[in-house]
Amino acid sequence: MGRQRLPTELKALKGTLNTTREKNKPSADTALAKKSTAIFPEETKIACPKTIQSKYVRSYWKKLTAMLVAVRVLSPADLPQLEELCIILEKLREVQSLFSDIDPLEDFDTFEKTQKVFIALSNKFDQLGSKYYISPAARTKLTLDELNVIKTGQEIQKNESAISALLGGRK
User: Fold this and answer.
1) Which of 93, 82, 90, 86 is nearest to 132 (CA)?
2) Which of 2, 9, 11, 152 has the fewest CB atoms nearer than 10 Å to its CB?
3) Cα–Cα separations (whole angstroms), residue 167 to 18, 79, 99
4) What's the pTM value of the predicted model, to 2 decimals?
5) How do residues 77-129 score in pLDDT, each as one tens digit?
6) 167: Cα within 13 Å, side-chain hemisphere
7) Contact at 8 Å (CB) between 71 and 42?
8) How many CA atoms lie within 13 Å of 100's alpha carbon, on the beta-carbon side?
9) How far apart are CA 99 and CA 155, in angstroms?
10) Can you tell me the distance from the alpha carbon of 80 to that of 86, in angstroms, rounded to the nearest whole number?
C-alpha cells in the first residue's frame, strides 16, 4: 500500500507545491463551500417565517439567527428546526399566561393540565435549544471546542516547525 498523498495546503506551506500538477485540483475550502449544507456567510439576515406571529418571538428569531450566523454554525438545513423552536416558544408563552391566571385552589384540574402542558413544552424547547447553543452550558461547550481547535492548530504548527528544523539540518 502506498503512502498517503499530502494535502495541497500543506505542500504550499512547505514550499514544495508543483503548481502545474496541482492547479486543477480544488482546495479543501472550495470543496466545503460547494456542499449543499454549507453554512450561511457572516452578516446574512434570515427572514422570520410567517408561521411565527408573536412580536416577542419574531425579535427572538432575529437575535438567535444573527448569533448562530456569527458563530458560523447555521445552515439552511437548520431553519425548519429553528422555526419549530420558535413556535414552541410562542406556545410556551401562551400557556404561561394562562397558567398565571389560574388559581390552583379554585380549579385544580385545569391548573394541573396546564402545568403538564407547560412542562412538556419546556422540555421540548430545552431539547431543541441545546442543539442551537441556547443554554449557557451549550455555549460554553462551543467556546471550549473553538479553543481546542486553536490549541490543536498550534500544536500542529509547532510539530511542523520541529520537523522542518530536523530536516533542514540533514541537507
Assistant:
1) 82
2) 2
3) 20, 50, 72
4) 0.61
5) 889 999 999 999 999 999 999 888 888 888 899 999 999 999 999 999 988 88
6) 7
7) no
8) 5
9) 54
10) 10
Other CB atoms within a 10 A radius of the CB of residue 66 amount to: 14
Burial of residue 87, with CB atoms counted within 10 A of its CB: 0-12 exposed, 13-18 middle, 19 or more buried: middle
**The three cell numbers locating residue 27:** 482546495
d(CA 88, CA 80): 12
- Residue 51 Cα distances to 23, 41, 57, 88, 91, angstroms: 48, 25, 11, 11, 12
Mean of all residue pLDDT scores within the chain = 82
The CA distances from residue 87 to 33, 45, 97, 134, 165, in Å, are: 31, 19, 16, 15, 58
